[in-house]
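Note to self: keep these together.
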Amino acid sequence: GRYTIDLEGANSTFDVMEQPPAPPSAHPTAMELGTGTMIAIVVIGFVLIVGIIAAVVVSRRP
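Structure:
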């Protein structure tokens, strides 16, 4: 699937389902940290990004 996200006027297109799986050797740090830690980092990062975007949108309202 192809998803286009419009963020701050910049069009970014992501091919989600068409990307080949990355080899395990490409992410040695991910294997060392463990799955639970990686999920926590991704969730925290996602929440922070969403929070920043929400704050920008709210601050632009008249």
